[in-house]
From TrEMBL:
Region (Disordered): 27-52
Originating species: Streptomyces carpaticus
Name of the featured protein: Tat pathway signal sequence domain protein
A Pfam family this chain is assigned to: PcRGLX_2nd
PROSITE patterns the UniProt entry points to: TAT (PS51318)
Biased composition (Low complexity): 27-51
PANTHER family on file: CONCANAVALIN A-LIKE LECTIN/GLUCANASE, TAT PATHWAY SIGNAL SEQUENCE DOMAIN PROTEIN
Annotated transmembrane regions: none
Domain PcRGLX/YetA-like N-terminal RIFT barrel: 54-133
Record-annotated PcRGLX/YetA-like C-terminal alpha/alpha toroid domain positions: 507-915
Upper lineage: Bacteria, Bacillati, Actinomycetota, Actinomycetes, Kitasatosporales
Endpoints of the signal sequence: 1-29
Keyword Zinc: no
Length: 916
C-alpha cells in the first residue's frame, strides 16, 4: 500500500505541523501594522527564531528597466516561524552593492511570526537584474524622504522634489517644486456631467462642472525610502458635492516622480447624471520664449511626438542648423540676435500652438490635434494605434511629464495641454475624455414586463438573467486608475521620454519566484510547474493553453474600456462565433466560479509576467466595478450579466476577498487593502437583502442573531475576508467570527452538508441548526473559494472536529449514494461539477493518507463531469470572414469550466501529483 503523508497537503515545509488558533497584532491608526503580539494568555512567537536565508527577487518583466517610475513596492512571503515581527531586511544587488530599502510586515502567522513583508526601493538606486533580500540591517538612503505637517499643509521632500499637499479646499497639491522652482501647482480633480445622453438627441442638454474638495489628508507612511499621502474628498459644484474620491500619492527617496492611485465612486442617478469628463489637472508655469517651450506625446512602440509651441523648422527662412537642432532636441536655443535676422525680425508672425490633445477613444486608435488657442480650429497632427499614455509640457528650465497607466485599455482617455503659449499651461490627464460621449450607465432594457417574482424566475429560465426592478443600478460602483507625474529639470530627450512612457505604461515590479513562494506555504494547495512526466506535461500544456487563449481573447474580442477592462466573458455562442455578450447572465463573467483564483494560481505556479498582469487587471476590475462601495449593498458583488452591475443577485461570493488578497500581499497595494477591510463587515448586508427572497414563502424579517446566510458559498466568501483581516492584524472580531463559524458548522450533525433551517448570528459568527442529521447540498457550495479557505484554515488549527467534518465533506461529495447514506443518512442526490470536486477528493486523500482516494480523484478529473474530459481538444481553430466581423481563433472553452478545471488540475497536482 502506497503511503500518502499529510505533509503533502501543501507540499511545503509550512504544512508539516499544526498550531493552535491564536491572535495576531492589531493595526496602528496610521495604517501600518504593529509588531506581532499574541493575545493575553496565548503563546507568543516561537523562541529562538533562526531567521531565513536571503531570497532572490527579480524584475517581473525580463531585463533591467531603464526607468522605475517613482520606485517600486513588492511583497514577499516567509515560512511560519522563520522571522520575528521586529526583523529588519537588507537588499543587495548581484554584485553585492547595498540598496536602500524600506520594509514592513503586512501579514502574520498565528504564532506571531511574520508571514508577509512589503519592501520599497526608489528609482534612484542602482539597477540590476536580480537582488538578494534577507534578514539584515537596512541601508538608509543618502537623502531620505521627509514629511512635515502643520494644520494647513503636509510637505514631502524626496531630495529631488518637494510636494505640498493642502488639507482643505480645491487643490489637492499646492505645488511641486524642484530646486526651488515651481514645476507644477494647483493640482486638482475635475469632472463634468450632463442631464441627458447625447445619443438620445435631446432638444437641450444642461451641464455642470465640478472640481475637487478635500475632506481629509492622512500620512500613511513617512519614509525613509517611501512616503504615502492619502487624500479623500468629493467633487464639488455650486449646489452639489458628489463622486467621492480617494487618492494616494507615493513619493520615493531621491525620485523626481509622483505616483498616484486614483479611485472614485459613482453615487449619481444614472437616469440624469451622465458623466462626460473626469480628469486630473495641474497648472504648469511656462518659462522662456514660445520657441523654447516643448511638447512631448508618447505614441505606440517607441514613438514620440516632439514639437515646440512655436516651430522654427520648416519655415521659409532658416534660423540656422544649430537653432533647429536645439529646438528639435528640446534644448534652449541661442539668443535670437545670433540667428538669421530674416527669422528673428518676423518671430511674432509664426503661430504659437499652445493647445495639444492626444485622445484615445477606442482601443484601436488615437489621434493628436493641436490649435493656437481656444476659439480657433484644431489641426490634425497625426494618429496611431495604442498610445502609451504619457505627455510633457515645459522648457529647458523644467517641466511636467504626466501620464496614465493602461491608457488605451481604459479608453476613452485623453492627454490635454492648454495655454502653453501663455504664462501658465494646464496639463490634464482625462480618465474619461470630454471628446467621447457621456457615460451611459442606464439599464439596457425596460424590464420586459418582469415586475413580479414569477415573471423574473421565468426570465431566468430563458436568458439566465436574474432581473428585478431597481437592482440594475451602478450607484456605489467604483474605478481605480494609476497615474504618474514627473517633475523634470529639463525637457527630456525623445529616448528618455520613451523610457518614461514605458515605465508609465508598465510600472516595473520586483517579485520572488514560485519556488520561494511555494516553500513559504502561502495560499493553500498549489505547486510550481512540473513537467517531469508525460502525464504531468499534458496537464501543464492544457493549463498553459487555456491561459494563453484567454490572454489573446481579450485582444481579439477587444475586451477593453473604462468599465470593462479586466473582465472576461462567461459563455460562448458557437452559432455566431462570439461570446454571449448580449444574453442575460451569460455575458460578463464577474468572477463566477472563481476565474480570479485560477489566474492568480497560474501566476504563482509560473511566475510569468503576462500571468501577473492579467490577474492584476482582473482584480482591479472585479474589486471596483463588480461590487458596491456605497449604499445599503456596500460589500456585495453583482452576479454575471450583460452589464457588470445589472443582475439582481447581489452576493458576497462575487465581492469575495479571496480573489483580491493575492494582489494585496504580492504588492502591498493600499487601495486593495481598503477593499479587503471593507469586506470584513459584508455580513451585515444580510440584514437588508434576503438572498432567497424570490423563493421565500414568508416576509423577510431579519433577526441579527438568526440570519439566513449560507454556510458554504456565503460563509466561504466571508471567511476569506475574515482570514485576510486576521492575517493582516486587523479587527480581532474577524478572527472570532471565522473560528466560531468553522466550529459551529462542524458541530452540525452533517457539517457543511447539513440540511434544514440553519441560521447565522451576526454578533459572533456562529451557526445554529437542527440536531438531527439531514442533507442539503448544492454543487456551487465550494467553488467560490470555500475549498481554498479550508485548506488554508486547517493549516492554522488543531481542532479535530473541524478537520474531520471538512474531510468527510470532501470525501463524500463524489462518493456513491450508498456511501453517502451510510454516513449522513441520505443520498446527496445528482450533484453537478464533479470534476471540480476532484480536488476535494484529493484533499481527503492526503488528510486520510488514502491512496484509493488519490486514484479516485484522478479518475474524477479525467472523466470531466461538467468540465473537460481527458480527451477534450485543447486547441483552437481559425474562423475567417465573412462568417465573423474580424478573424478569430476559436476554442471549445467556457469560462466556468475553465476556471474549475484549472483549479482542479492545479490542486490535484499539488496534493496527489505523485499518484497521477
Amino acid at each position: 500500500m502506497v503511503h500518502i503523508s499529510r505533509r503533502h497537503v501543501l507540499a511545503s515545509a509550512a504544512a508539516a505541523g499544526t498550531t493552535a488558533w491564536l491572535s495576531t497584532p492589531t493595526a496602528t491608526a496610521a495604517g501600518q501594522p504593529a509588531a506581532g503580539q499574541p493575545a493575553a494568555g496565548e503563546p507568543g512567537p516561537p523562541a529562538g527564531l533562526t531567521g531565513h536565508e536571503p531570497v532572490t527577487v527579480r524584475w517581473l518583466e525580463d531585463g533591467t528597466p531603464p526607468e522605475l517610475a517613482a520606485g517600486t513596492t513588492w511583497g514577499v512571503p516567509w515560512p511560519r516561524g522563520a522571522l520575528s515581527p521586529e526583523q529588519e531586511f537588507a537588499l543587495v544587488t548581484e554584485s553585492g552593492t547595498a540598496v536602500p530599502v524600506q520594509s514592513w510586515p503586512t501579514g502574520w502567522w498565528p504564532d506571531g511570526s511574520v508571514k508577509w513583508t512589503a519592501h520599497a526601493v526608489s528609482n534612484a538606486h542602482p539597477h540590476t537584474g536580480t537582488y538578494r533580500l534577507g534578514p539584515g540591517e537596512a541601508t538608509p538612503p543618502d537623502t531620505p524622504v521627509t514629511v512635515a505637517r502643520d494644520h494647513r499643509r503636509t510637505t514631502v521632500d524626496t531630495g529631488a522634489m518637494t510636494v505640498v499637499f493642502r488639507h482643505s479646499g480645491e487643490h489637492l497639491v499646492e505645488s511641486i517644486q524642484r530646486g526651488g522652482t515651481v514645476i507644477a501647482e494647483k493640482g486638482r480633480l475635475i469632472a463634468s456631467r450632463q442631464d441627458s445622453p447625447g445619443t438620445d438627441l435631446p432638444a437641450t442638454v444642461r451641464g455642470q462642472v465640478f472640481t475637487s474638495s478635500v475632506d481629509r489628508v492622512t500620512v500613511e507612511q513617512e519614509g525613509p525610502v517611501r512616503a504615502v499621502v492619502k487624500v479623500e474628498g468629493r467633487h464639488k459644484g455650486k449646489r452639489r458635492a458628489w463622486l467621492p474620491f480617494t487618492l494616494r500619492f507615493y513619493l520615493y527617496a531621491g525620485s523626481e516622480a509622483l505616483r498616484v492611485v486614483h479611485t472614485f465612486v459613482y453615487d449619481g442617478d444614472e437616469s440624469k447624471d451622465f458623466v462626460n469628463g473626469l480628469g486630473v489637472r495641474f497648472d504648469v508655469p511656462m518659462r522662456g520664449a514660445p520657441h523654447d517651450r516643448h511638447i512631448r506625446l508618447a505614441g505606440q512602440g517607441e514613438g514620440v511626438l516632439s514639437e515646440a509651441v512655436r516651430p522654427l523648422t520648416g519655415l521659409r527662412r532658416d534660423p540656422g542648423a544649430s537653432v533647429r537642432a536645439d529646438q528639435v532636441a528640446g534644448r534652449a536655443t541661442a539668443d535670437p540676435s545670433t540667428w538669421d535676422q530674416r527669422v528673428t525680425s518676423r518671430l511674432p508672425y509664426i503661430p504659437a500652438f499652445g493647445d495639444y490633445s492626444l485622445h484615445q477613444l477606442s482601443a484601436h486608435g488615437f489621434d493628436i490635434h493641436k490649435r493656437t488657442s481656444a476659439g480657433h480650429s484644431w489641426l490634425r497632427v497625426d494618429g496611431g494605434g495604442r498610445a502609451r499614455g504619457l505627455g510633457y509640457v515645459g522648457s529647458p528650465a523644467g517641466g511636467l511629464a504626466f501620464g496614465m497607466r493602461n491608457f488605451w485599455q481604459l479608453h476613452p482617455t485623453e492627454l490635454e495641454i492648454t495655454g502653453a503659449a501663455t504664462d501658465t499651461a494646464q496639463a490634464t490627464v482625462w480618465l474619461w475624455s470630454p471628446r467621447a460621449g457621456a457615460m451611459d450607465l442606464r439599464f439596457y432594457h425596460d424590464g420586459l414586463g418582469q415586475e413580479e417574482y414569477p415573471e423574473q424566475l421565468e426570465g431566468l429560465e430563458i436568458t439566465y438573467e436574474d432581473y428585478e426592478p431597481g437592482f440594475g443600478t451602478p450607484y456605489g460602483v467604483a474605478r481605480t486608475t494609476e497615474l504618474t507625474f514627473w517633475a523634470l529639470e529639463a525637457t527630456p530627450t525623445a529616448e528618455r521620454f520613451s523610457a518614461l512612457a514605458d515605465a508609465n505604461a508598465t510600472p516595473p515590479l520586483l517579485v520572488s519566484g514560485p519556488e520561494h513562494n511555494h516553500a513559504a506555504g502561502v495560499f493553500g494547495a498549489w505547486s510550481p510547474v512540473d513537467r517531469s512526466t508525460a502525464a504531468k506535461d499534458e496537464l501543464e500544456e492544457n493549463l498553459a493553453f487555456m491561459h494563453r487563449f484567454y490572454v489573446e481573447e481579450v485582444d481579439q474580442r477587444s475586451w477593453y474600456g473604462f468599465w470593462d477592462y479586466g473582465d472576461v466573458m462567461h459563455s460562448y455562442d458557437g452559432d455566431r462565433h462570439t461570446w454571449r455578450y448580449d444574453i442575460g447572465g451569460y455575458a460578463w463573467d464577474n468572477s463566477e466560479l472563481s476565474t480570479d483564483l485560477l489566474l492568480w494560481y497560474h501566476y504563482l505556479r509560473t511566475g510569468e509576467a503576462a500571468a501577473f498582469r492579467f490577474a492584476e487587471a482582473m482584480t482591479r476590475h472585479t474589486g471596483e466595478v463588480d461590487m458596491y462601495h456605497l449604499g445599503e449593498w456596500r460589500g456585495l458583488g453583482t452576479r454575471h450579466g450583460v452589464m457588470h452591475w445589472a443582475d439582481s443577485a447581489k452576493q458576497v461570493r462575487i465581492s469575495n476577498a479571496g480573489y483580491k488578497r493575492f494582489l494585496y500581499f504580492l504588492t502591498a497595494d493600499e487601495r486593495i487593502g481598503d477593499v479587503l477591510h471593507d469586506l470584513v463587515d459584508a455580513d451585515r448586508t444580510f440584514l437588508v437583502l434576503d438572498p432567497g427572497r424570490k423563493l421565500a414563502e414568508e416576509p423577510f424579517d431579519p433577526d441579527p442573531e438568526a440570519l439566513p446566510m449560507g454556510k458554504s458559498t456565503d460563509w466561504g466568501a466571508m471567511g476569506l475576508a475574515w482570514l485576510t483581516e486576521w492575517e493582516r492584524g486587523g479587527d480581532p472580531t474577524a478572527r472570532t467570527k471565522l473560528l466560531n463559524g468553522a466550529a459551529s458548522i462542524a458541530a452540525l450533525p452533517n457539517g457543511w452538508a447539513q440540511g434544514g433551517a440553519t441560521t447565522y448570528n451576526l454578533r459572533d459568527g456562529r451557526f445554529t441548526g437542527p440536531s438531527e442529521p439531514s442533507v442539503s447540498i448544492g454543487s456551487l457550495s465550494s467553488v467560490f473559494g470555500l475549498m481554498e479557505l479550508m485548506t488554508e484554515l486547517l493549516q492554522l488549527t488543531d481542532d479535530e472536529q473541524v478537520r474531520a467534518q471538512w474531510v468527510r465533506f470532501c470525501r463524500l461529495y463524489n462518493a456513491t449514494a450508498d456511501e453517502q447514506r451510510a454516513e449522513t443518512g441520505s443520498s446527496w442526490g445528482s450533484l453537478n461539477l464533479r470534476q471540480a470536486y476532484s480536488r476535494a477528493t484529493a484533499y481527503a486523500a492526503v488528510q486520510l493518507e488514502d491512496p484509493a482516494l488519490a486514484a479516485r480523484a484522478w479518475r474524477e478529473l479525467r472523466t470531466g463531469h461538467a468540465g473537460y474530459p481527458e480527451d477534450h481538444p485543447f486547441r483552437s481553430v481559425r474562423v475567417e470572414g465573412p462568417a465573423v466581423l474580424n478573424p478569430v481563433n476559436e476554442a471549445p472553452l467556457s469560462t466556468n469550466a475553465s476556471a474549475q478545471y484549472g483549479l482542479a488540475v492545479i490542486q490535484c497536482l499539488a496534493l496527489v501529483g505523485d499518484h497521477l
